[in-house]
Amino acid sequence: MSNVLLTYVVSAMKDYFKSSYIALLTYADRKASILKGVRLSGEQLSQISSSQLTVDPGVAELLPFQRLASVGRHFADIDPKLDVLAPLRRPYRNRKVNLLVRLEDLVTRRHALKHEMQIDIDFDGLALERSIHDLTVGISRVYETITGHFWWPYELPVSSKFSLRPGRKQLTAKAHARDLEAAEDSVAGSIGGGQAKVAGP
Predict the structure, then answer these.
(1) pLDDT score of 173
(2) Which three-class secondary structure state does DSSP give residue 194?
(3) Which of the chain's termini has less CB crowding within 10 Å, N or C?
(4) Residue 142 CB: number of other CB atoms within 10 A?
(5) 91-97: long-range pairs with CB below 8 Å, 24+
(6) 163 pLDDT above the threshold of 60
(7) By CB neighbour count within 10 A (0-12 exposed, 13-18 middle, 19+ buried), where does 163 fall?
């Protein structure tokens, strides 16, 4: 079950970066040059013509947002001085492995499950919780970097405090389920985060 839920964790990460990219592209100074290199499909053009789709989400649909190296390049195209991966490279809680490596590992595990049907028997409920924790903290860091870069207000939803606490005691089964649900809502949800309404964690 944890292996299946992992795919949703990775999807949440992808959706966050994608929605943030769309928000920034909408107001980007370099938007014209970015659009020059984009070829929308006939179906997308038809949807745009009928007002079912706008250009910016259409462009984002053509880009990959799972591999973080690609994500970094997409945001650098919008603003070369914006490095959304920098906060993920910083040390976290004296760990030997930073959040960038941890999140990339989640993507690799997801690909192995989806494309090669490889089930990781070591990825249990605790590993899933840690992965949600790492993703929540990682997205919070990226969100802070984006809002700081553009001098926008930085605010986290209350549910994010679940994964930003320095330490946790042993939870009862009920409390564990409640906190896990709060973390998932924190990762998957979006809030307005500044003038361009960048997706918050």
Answers:
(1) 45
(2) coil
(3) N
(4) 24
(5) 92/137
(6) no
(7) buried
Tell me the one-letter amino acid at 41.
S
Any idea how long the chain is?
A: 201
CA nearest to 197, candidates 18, 22, 15:
22
CA 88 vs CA 47, 96, 98: distances in Å? 36, 13, 7
Tens-place pLDDT, residues 90-121: 998 888 999 999 999 999 888 777 777 778 77
Q: What percent of the chain has pLDDT over 90?
A: 55
pTM: 0.75
d(CA 155, CA 201): 10
Single-letter amino acid, residue 135: L
Q: For 41-98, what is each residue's pLDDT tens digit?
A: 999 999 999 999 999 999 999 999 989 999 999 999 999 999 999 999 999 888 899 9
